[in-house]
Amino acid sequence: MFNNYFTIAVRNFLRNKTFSVINVLGLSIGISAALVMFLIVYYEFSFDKFVPDRDRVYRVVLDAKFSGTEGHSAGLPAPLGSAIENEVTGVEKTVPVFQFQGDGTAKVEVATATPGKPVIYKKQPNVVFTNPQYFSLLGYSWIVGSPQAGMQDPFSVVLTESRAKQYFPGIPVTDVIGKQITYNGVTTTVAGVVKDLNKTTAFTADQFISLATIAKTNLQDNFMMTVWDDWMAYSQLYIKLSEGTNPQATEAQLKVLLNKYNKKANKDANNTMSFHLQPLDDIHFNGLYQSVGGRVANKLTLYGLLAIAAFLLLLGCINFINLTTAQATKRAKEIGIRKTMGSSRKQLVLQFLSETLFITVIATVISVALIPLLLKMFTDFIPPGLHFDLFNQPKLILFLLILTIAVSFLSGLYPALILSGYKPVSVLKGQAFNDSGQTRNAWVRKTLTVSQFVIAQFFIIATLMVSKQINYSMNADLGFKKDAILTFETPRDTVKTHGQKLLHEIQSIPEVEIAASGFLSPADLGVAFTNISYPEKKDIVANVQIRWGDPNYLNVYGIKLLAGRNVKPSDSNKELIINETYAKILGFKKPEEALNKYLNLNSKDLPIVGIMQDFHDQSFRASIGPIAFAGNNGTIYHVRLKPNNANGHVWQSAIAKMEKAYKQMYPEEDFKYSFFDETISKMYQSEQNTARLLKWASGLAIFISCLGLLGLVIYITNTRTKEIGIRKILGASVATIVSILSRDFMRLVILAFLIAAPIAWWASYKWLQDFVYRTPMSWWVFALSGLVMIVLAVITLGIQTIKAAVANPVKSLRTE
């Protein structure tokens, strides 16, 4: 029986090649989208699922309030770990993790057989200082050595197998014990090798220096190992609670610890501090406590991806239903004969479902073949570490199996019930489709078509609104210049030795218009807040964004002064310029009133010598806050280039000369630069990715929807063939017939717009609320969306209606 079903499915597939290809194409798009989204969502939700007893593992994080401004940090006071180990009950494991400061990388020198000639690896990532409990917390497997032997003594290091092979090629990993490796001047001895985790995890370290090493080096001061009232992002702490321990009880003990060692932590309602236990499963999704070099996924974005995949899959199914019912006239007599020969309705339903399954399997195979290509096309959306390997991902195979069955059932059930329900007598008399446009099933097909266009129109409006906001953000007046400016950084602690010399060399390059040294750019991906007080009004203590640079800094970026003067050259903070927002916070109605007033920064009273115009220091999601600019040199260089020529040689020449000057002073360092406008663009990377995804979704939704509309118009023209012929004989023109056939369909498209518009308006409005500065909800966005959909619908309708209208009426009237 099933063999017969398969044979009939193949015959029908080959007999109706055009419709078969359209069906496969529509389903392939939906299934491909579902597969890609499943890969992304499954990957993101699989982080750290391998950790033993992960429900008892927490990261200790910090919640604080400074002068009324809330702050959150994964960085902690360095001595907290040892205090928990000694004074807090109910904690099974305490695991401090410290990273090298700066960019978190280390210069690694591996000793070789030739004295004085180590192999050097620049900027090696994933180096941490930790204790033996780190390995049992994550369940590492040891190849050689043990936590107790390898991590108790200072100047010991444990490597992963991959790092051991990289540093000591050609040597068995079991023989690397005792080898020496130097990290940023700290010489260590290899005491163990563990297998790589090769898991989806936020724990990416692959070189583990014993925590005891810190106390024996100058890192003791760098990491502030005895300081309770300060902390850095490089210091993190994980704990594993004992079975039955209540996290709230542990947090209460941490509060006692904080009050014991930092009595000023909670001095008033506007200045508070507390430790919080963050569950392991929350780390990958909570941006409040993002760690240095860590990546955070957004659950709402992931749910949005699933929704888009579901919509595209639904569109494919609706498209299949419409096209299948459109072909019903060709199957009517076959169904009547089969019923007359004794086929039951159940058998016919199974037959039609089998045909649907056959088409779905073909679509699934095509979708799987397309996945590697799609992953390359959507690289910006693909998380690092995600890969597609069907035969080594059993859960993906299970998902494909369930998806194929579900799509076959959803797509094929309605057509199967409709087709199998025809009465054989009516079918064989040619009466099965009389007045079918008014039958009780007509509203189902129309509802499905309207649903398709509602989804398509929603995507179009959403795409236009997201693109409009991005365009508004990128082209609005930010309060500074952003074009033709590049920045690069020099090693720390070299300002006095090389800073001014390098700046002079860069300024003398003919292609450079102006250059300055300082701190972060006016708007940067990072933030730098500091507490500044106003001695005349001690109740005003603002959390201020701080920038500093030499006098040319403001000129590079074209930041305007509203009152006062620029800072004078200095190698330390002696003068301040504040923005107009800060001046208003301090109580000054006019900018010039703030001049020559003093602010306290780092226990030094500094005069206000200028008021600068407000500029956007963060993305448009955040409002402009208080900003202070201090006159001081720095390690970040800001260079504005002269206008480029058509072939780009001006900028290429300038960059080459800057690199040459840089290399003369820092021969071992890599010259890395970035253009400032690219930094601004990265602030809206998430929105740009969303816009790209919506453009693809809109295009696919429109394409599938138009296929569904084509299926419905084919169905209607097939059932109204005789009517068309009679109208032509009675003198109706082609335009009249096209108008009659298209009228109902255009009503469906307009109805879809009327439904989609308020939904899209609400969704766009909610999305825009995340931006303090946002584009208006313009009427033309909705009008353009409706116009685009109407034009596409007219084109789609014209393909079939014109063909039907110009057909020979004699042929249609002869049809029985």
Automatic annotation (TrEMBL):
Residues covered by the MacB-like periplasmic core domain: 20-255, 448-619
Q: What superkingdom does the record give?
A: Bacteria
Q: How does it sit in the membrane?
A: Multi-pass membrane protein
Where is this protein localized, as stated in its record?
Answer: Cell membrane
- Which InterPro entries does the protein's record reference? ABC3_permease_C (IPR003838), MacB_PCD (IPR025857), Macrolide_Exporter_MacB (IPR050250)
Keywords per UniProt:
Cell membrane, Membrane, Transmembrane, Transmembrane helix
- Any one GO CC term of the record: plasma membrane
| GO terms, molecular function | transmembrane transporter activity
UniProt key word Transport: no
Chief site of localization = membrane
Q: Where does the ABC3 transporter permease C-terminal domain start and stop, copy by copy? A: 307-422, 698-808
| Membrane-traversing stretches | 20-43, 300-321, 356-375, 396-422, 442-466, 693-718, 748-765, 777-799
Q: What is this protein called?
A: ABC transporter permease
